[in-house]
Amino acid sequence: HTLTIDADAPRTEMSDDLYGVFYEDINYAADGGLYAELVRNRSFEFAPTDNASFTGMTAWDVVEGAGGTVEVASERSEWLNDSNRAYLQIEADGPGVGVRNEGYNSGFAIERREKYDFTMFVRSDVRQRLTVSLESADGETTYAEKTIRVNARDEWRKVRTRLRANATVDDARLVVTGGAAGTLRLDMVSLFPRDTWVGPVNGRSVLREDLAQLVADLEPSFLRFPGGCVTNVGTFDTYLESDGQDRRRTYQWKETIGPVEERPTNWNFWGYNQSYGLGYLEYFEFAEDLGATPLPVLSVGANGCGSRIPEMTDDERIERWVQDTVDLIEFANGDTDTEWGAVRAELGHPEPFGLEYIGLGNEENTRTFEANFPRFRAAIEERYPDVTVISNSGPDDTGARFDELWEFNREQGVDMVDEHYYNDPAWFLANDDRYDSYDRNGPHVFLGEYASRGNQWRNALAEAAYMTGIERNSDLVELASYAPMFANEDYVQWSPDMMWFDNDESWGSTSYHTQKMFMTNTGDEVVPSEHTGPEATPPPLSGGVFLSTWLTQAAYDDVVVTDNETGDVLFSDDFSGEETWDAQAGAWDVVDGEYVQSAAGVEDARSIIPDAYGQDWSDYTLDLSARKLG
Ligand code: AHR
């Protein structure tokens, strides 16, 4: 193989925000995943409209004690608030009557000596002592226990205590029982580990530590959220407008902020229930803590993802949604003397989030998207001309419709178009030149979702090969994110995924490691290069070379990279004058049939630069970013 790099050829500026992440609440990515809440169905709101097997008692068992009735109720005069209407009602004949929660996966994963914060809303007509405990599934062993005294009071009040576990197990149950005969009502029964992820800006979060850290380790430059099909499918009512009747509401950001007990739960496109415990403020803060640009995606009243739910065509309703969209930007960026900037400040974040991008629509196959999009975009551009509006092209496999949407976007003169595709590894190998021929004068590309089908080593390699094509074209492809991000292994609606977990373990897929390698090694300028040698022959995956070469700025005057074996000069450049650069080099080798990053290549490079310039290696990093498929 020979790699020729032409240092004199014109270089292409690489996008500063090229690699980011796409977060969607799919595969239990939020509840039972990134959101650290351990109690499942804490507000008794699960409903068969979300999932035929769900009821208000999903994940709860009755503890019989002295006997009585335990059931989910929803009396207007009794409920916690208008956004949280279901609650548990216990009519106890004596002590010990209550409920047991099974959590997610095998149960509650707890660690010896770790602390867990318990909170709950209670209403009791008698004075009594409630018992809160963590127990084994058979009830034989108690891992932690506390009592909470409640007075006879005809109103809801919040109680709290802290449990400390005496064992490390992954199948505990949370048990709450009353201490006397009488009527007891419970809602928002919650248990959080004390140890959640701590962000550098916002401090302790509500995010599960290991999962948030896996994301942070990718060093993403943007965070796209909250979907995907979670974003743009449903009716367009709010929970209150529908008087709590509408269980299939399109995701609306205003329902997801404020005290968690006042956030209505909602149907999730992927067939389960979303608590909105992770809402817009949490997503913005997570992005800020990741050092990533927030990139929310909102519906324009068109249902995508093959949904048949009626779309938004009435003018008044569209106008409210347009206003909500503009309000979101004010919530993110507005001064604290604006209406929504003030709300952000009240919620504890006076500093603006610096929103730069907003996605309108996800994967729309209907005409309503074209009808509504211009109105949303015009309203945003009028008030926030600096915010980049991203349109979309629908999924890549829709043939003519994909082309039509691209044409629409060209006519509209949009800045960026969100493309999605999921294909076989061979497709990725055969199409790494996809963007070479895209029109540079048209809209730029946000590759918002892509993955090769499978979670095996060959997928990671095919994606790596493809990403060299993204890098070479990163003047055009400004943003790219693998999808989906998370999957709880016991609740999978979509595979492959980048990161996997259960209730106490988490791991990156092979694709995660490809993403991490590329995301944590990015350049400033693409340096044209040419490879001669055996060509890629997909399929099967063998014998190909895919590469991108780039430079990052740092501190030396010129650089020569020589192949130590042959003595060939691989790359040389004389950065005369003021220019300073840091070249990076790295190669992949096949060692004993395994595909590995070439330590030798890096070591060679390390020895070249100090020799040539008489300086310490510690001043430099060297990575040629030649990704070779052996
Ligand atoms: O990433 C999973 C799904 O794929 C997304 O929700 C949707 O946008 C696409 O169809």
UniProtKB/TrEMBL annotation:
It comes from the Bacteria. The keyword Hydrolase applies. It is an enzyme of class 3 (hydrolase). Its EC number is 3.2.1.55. Signal peptide: none annotated. Keywords: Hydrolase, Signal. It catalyses: Hydrolysis of terminal non-reducing alpha-L-arabinofuranoside residues in alpha-L-arabinosides. Belongs to the glycosyl hydrolase 51 family. This is non-reducing end alpha-L-arabinofuranosidase. It comes from Myceligenerans pegani. The lineage of its organism: Bacteria, Bacillati, Actinomycetota, Actinomycetes, Micrococcales.
